[in-house]
């Protein structure tokens, strides 16, 4: 029953997140907000809504270890599981802006999370407290400012736009709800499903961890992380099917930056997030997967080919299996 409750909670999370993005995007467009602004705010934040809802709920319930597992696990799954699967389907192209801007920022975010998590100077423990959360959110604001400035400069100079921004803007422009009241109702319904799904997911994950005798962080690192990463998997595979081969990497890298800086930063402001037993290995694994993404992105004429995708996927499955067995 705990597992079924977890599946039901994840389904509510994904459905609620989708309705929230659709309703809020339509509402913003009806109010005259440009699609670019909506894409960089409502759509970008909304796609990370499941992770944010789970983490905030877990923090409020005092299950911050689950928050750690969800953030770090989602990022490892994004690279190993999602990009690995996408590359098995078809070679993934890596556009220059992703290599020059997004991946370096993801590496900076990963390094910041690694250092802050293991820094004992402030609190005397391995955790993320409010000061750490403020640092992460400050870095997130820098990333947003830099991204928006680059996009606007590129438009003035007539450069091709960032693929992730293109997708967000196109999605924001597809308004299918009329009038404003309808958009508001859908957005509120999505928010309600999101909150209900988060509560059910966290409660079921905690009960499942107790029933299996494994730490909450491990359940967050595996089952919950995979579930909340399903939107990124669907987006990447859809992009591949439509020939948008350069979107998959941008989608994953953008999600990882949001998870590390915005979601972990916000969660740390609510409640201190401890680095659980085995958490240092998880942080090290995240750093290795992030470095591997940069390596494969620069090889094979900036394409991630099937062999590299298979290596990423096998590495993810191997690490997840070891992590569960070692707990």
What does this 3D model show about the protein?
- By secondary structure, this protein is mostly helical.
- It has helices at 2-30, 35-46, 49-60, 64-89, 96-118, 130-157, 163-173, 180-212, 216-228, 230-241, 247-270, 279-298, 306-326; strands at residues 92-93, 127-128, 273-274, 303-304.
- The chain has one domain (2-326): A middle domain of Talin 1, CATH 1.20.1420.30.
- The longest helix is centred in the middle third of the chain and has 33 residues, at 180-212.
- The model has no long low-confidence stretch (mean pLDDT 79).
Uncertain runs with pLDDT below 50, 5 residues or more? none
CATH fold field value: A middle domain of Talin 1
Strand content: under 5%
Specify the biggest β-sheet. 2 strands, antiparallel
What is the molecular shape? Answer: globular
| CATH architecture type | Up-down Bundle
Tell me the helix content: over 70%
Q: How would you describe this structure in keywords?
A:
mainly alpha; A middle domain of Talin 1; 4 strands; 81% helix; two-stranded antiparallel ribbon; 2% strand
Secondary structure layout plus pairing:
Blueprint lengths: L1 H29 L4 H12 L2 H12 L3 H26 L2 E2 L2 H23 L8 E2 L1 H28 L5 H11 L6 H33 L3 H13 L1 H12 L5 H24 L2 E2 L4 H20 L4 E2 L1 H21 L1
Antiparallel strand pairs: 1-4, 2-3
